[in-house]
Each structure stands twice: as structure tokens, then as C-alpha cells.
Amino acid sequence: MKTQVAIIGAGPAGTLLSLILHQRGVSSVVIERQSKHYVLDRVRAGVLEWTSVELLESIGMGQRLHAEGHRHDRVKIGWGGNEILDIEFEKLAGRPMMAYGQTKIQEDLYAAVDHEGLDIVFESSDVELHDVTGDSPYVTFTAGGESQRIDCDYIAGCDGQHGVSRTAIPDHVKTDYERAYPFGWLGILSETPPLPHLLYANNERGFALCSERNPMLSRYYVQCPLDDTVKDWSDDRFWSELTARLPDDQAAQVVTGPSIEKSIAPLRSQVIEPMQYGNLFLAGDAAHIVPPTGAKGLNLAIADVHYLSGAFVARYGGDATKLEAYSETALRRVWSSVRFSWWMTVLLHRFPDESPFDQRMREEDLAYLTRSETARASVAQQYVGLDY
Ligand code: APR
Ligand code: PHB
């Protein structure tokens, strides 16, 4: 096969990139390790920055998003037992955010791929990148029991945190910035009505988060020790711990019910620099990981695709400057979001080795946010995301 851009990974980043390139006249083939069903079955994020909403609208994916998404003008933060503060991002930063599950985005992306007749090769294995810094890059892989090769001009590594693309950048070229957090998030889905607003909570027992997927599907999280397993958490224990970490008036509104999904995820911050090497360009989780506290992972993947797709289109129009500057351009937003996600994580979680002084400083931060509209505006601007 021959194509202009070979894309590795059919998650949100790779699929969105292929769609935008197609609409702008650039050909691509997507190579995905898992089956379509497996990718769609993953339970992932649920909050879209307004720039992400606008980008999805621009490629014709706004209809279901607005029909089934839930627009929010604020999030709430519970702290100090029964204190609660509102981050009113529509009032303070001039734009809302949209609660819309990544699963739905992936469904919409695959529906658009099918409608446009684009190429995703699912259940591929042994993917290898070749001649990445040469004039004739190509990708080899096995699919349908046969060895395959795609010759291309460029390779887009959209294969996530466990992907192969980032390993194609030599260790002496790349810098891997990483921080692992000493706790995880235990998340559940329950077919119950969610709270009216997203609610984060810092409590002496630990962090909690109340979110949603639709009017009858709630998504809840509690911070848990890294060595916990879902077997340690019955539904009763989960609901008891969640409500114990919320302000009383919010806990009283939680509608409990059986979990239909329960999983524990570790939290990590990671950035690979540079995000390009020769004819290889990384986008999404392949280049960076953020703790979910800032709701940035999916939005960063979409932002990378915004920059990279524009750079490829400009390149084929005869202007290589954006492609040469892709890594520098994308990393500005990446580092801004990585810092915000790290800051929100330190602000809202309890660390195993922390001192009473640390928690006291945390509560002073939260008290300052409660008192200062200027401080809340700063958080609001970063939470809903900056312009591209
Ligand atoms: N060959 C082919 N495909 C691969 C390989 C490989 N060697 N390794 C990984 N993949 C595929 C994975 O199966 C996955 O479908 O690449 C895809 C990467 O998708 P994501 O991990 O979802 O990453 P991305 O598209 O960047 O989206 C980031 O997804 O993980 C969440 O929190 C993250 O919301 C953020 C979003
Ligand atoms: C979610 O809905 O899954 C969600 C919301 C906000 C976050 C993280 C996850 O910060």
C-alpha cells in the first residue's frame, strides 16, 4: 500500500487525524492493534474543552455532541468538610465545557470513517516503523495473517502510552519527563442520575469526583491506594467512602445503585520531547500522559491533531514551516495542560507521606480560591482550556 500519512493507532487521536486529513485532501491509512469492538469498549474520559467541541463541529460531528452532550457552566470543589466553591468558567472565562463521553466520540469518529470509506486496519500486529529519518519511510505489520507494508511520506504515532512509535525516537534524542503519583483512582459507572454539576472533593479521607455520562449514567471516582484491587471495593464500600468525602449537602443528593463497571487506574504525568523525529510525528497519549484530575487527556489529543493536521495540509500545499515547528507548537499547550493537571492533582489529593502542614497549605489554597474571584478566574481559564 502507499499513502501520504501512515497513522499508528485508531483511538481518538489517530481516527480524528485521518478524518481531518481526508476532508482536507490528504490520504492516510490507520493501523490499529485491537479490534474495533475492543476500542469502543474502553471506559475513558468525559469532559470536552470548548475548543474541542468547536473542532468536532467543524468536521461535521456536532449533531450528536449537542443532542446528547451536557453543557456545564461550572464545576464545584468540596473541601474542609462542608466548604464548597464554584469555578464558574462561563462567567469567569467566557466559555462552557461539555460533558460527553469519549466512548461516544469514538463511536462518532468510527461512524464518520465508515461514511467516508476510510482505511482502518484493525487487529494488526508486529507494527514496525522503518526509515523514519530517511526519504522513504514505511510501516510493516501483520494483518489477516499476512505481512503488510505501507509506504508513506510521513508517519503519525497516535498509539497511546503503550505504543511503539515513541520507541522510534532514539534515547539520546528524546527527553522523558515523568512523575508517578502514589495513589490511583477507583472509578465506577452506575445507571443512576448524576449530580447536577461535576463535583471534585478534597477531604481528609482523600479525593473524590462526581461526574456523568448521560441523565441516567453516572461516573464516580475515589482516590485509593495503588495496591488496592477492585476486589477490595464492594459497591457498599465504594458508596460509603464516596459520600463520606463529599460535603453533606452534596452527599445527600447522590443516588446510589449497582456498579456496571468498576476499575482502578494509576495516575501519571509524562511528556516525551520532542514530539517529532525525522518523518515521525507523535500526537495524543503517545507523546504525553496527564492525571485525569484536570480532564485534559482527550482535549490534549484533540489539540495535537489540530496542530498536526494543519501542518500536514500546509506541507502538501508547499509550506513546510508548520510541520517543522509542530513539536514546539504542540508542546506549548501540552506543558500548560500538564502543569494544570499536576496542580489540580496536588491540590485535591492526600499524599501518603505528607505532613499536617501540607494539608494545611492545601486548605489555604482552597480558602483563597473561595475568597478570590481572580484566583477562581485563573483556574476557570485553565480548566476550560486556552485558545489554540
Ligand atoms: N500498533 C497499533 N496500534 C497500537 C499499538 C501498536 N503497536 N499500540 C497501541 N495501539 C493503539 C491502541 O490499541 C489504541 O487504540 O493505539 C490507540 C491509542 O489510543 P489511546 O490510547 O486512546 O490514545 P489517544 O488516541 O492519544 O487518545 C488519548 O485516550 O487514553 C485516553 O486518557 C486518554 O482521553 C485520552 C485519549
Ligand atoms: C469523567 O467524567 O470521567 C471525568 C471528569 C472530570 C475529570 C476526570 C474524569 O477531571
Report the portion of residues in β strands. 25-35%
Continuous helix count: 13
Shape field: globular
Share of residues in helices: 25-40%
> CATH superfamily name of the largest domain?
FAD/NAD(P)-binding domain
Supply the number of structural domains.
Answer: 2
Hetero ligands: adenosine-5-diphosphoribose, P-hydroxybenzoic acid
Question: Which structural category do the helix and sheet elements fall into?
Answer: alpha+beta
pLDDT below 50 for ≥5 consecutive residues: which ranges? none
Q: If you consult CATH, what is the topology of the largest domain?
A: FAD/NAD(P)-binding domain
Order of strands, main sheet, comes to 6-5-14-15-16-13-17-20
CATH architecture label of the largest domain: 3-Layer(bba) Sandwich
Chain-averaged pLDDT: 97
Largest sheet: 8 strands, mixed
Q: Mind telling me the CATH class of the largest domain?
A: Alpha Beta
Question: How many E-type strands?
Answer: 20
Q: How large, in whole angstroms, is the Cα Rg? A: 21 Å
Protein described:
This protein folds into 2 domains: 5-68 and 101-177 and 269-341, 3-Layer(bba) Sandwich (FAD/NAD(P)-binding domain), CATH 3.50.50.60; 71-99 and 181-267 and 352-384, 2-Layer Sandwich (D-Amino Acid Oxidase, Chain A, domain 2). The protein has 388 residues and is α+β, with helices and mostly antiparallel strands. It has 13 helices and 20 strands. α1 runs parallel beside α9. The chain has an 8-stranded mixed β-sheet with strand order 6-5-14-15-16-13-17-20, with helices on both faces. A 6-stranded mixed β-sheet has the order 8-2-1-12-19-18, covered by helices on one side. β14 (198-203) and β15 form a beta hairpin. Adenosine-5-diphosphoribose binds at residues 8-14, 31-34, 39, 44-45, 102, 124, 127, 158-160, 162-164, 284-286, 297-298, 301. The site of adenosine-5-diphosphoribose has 29 residues, from α1 and α9.
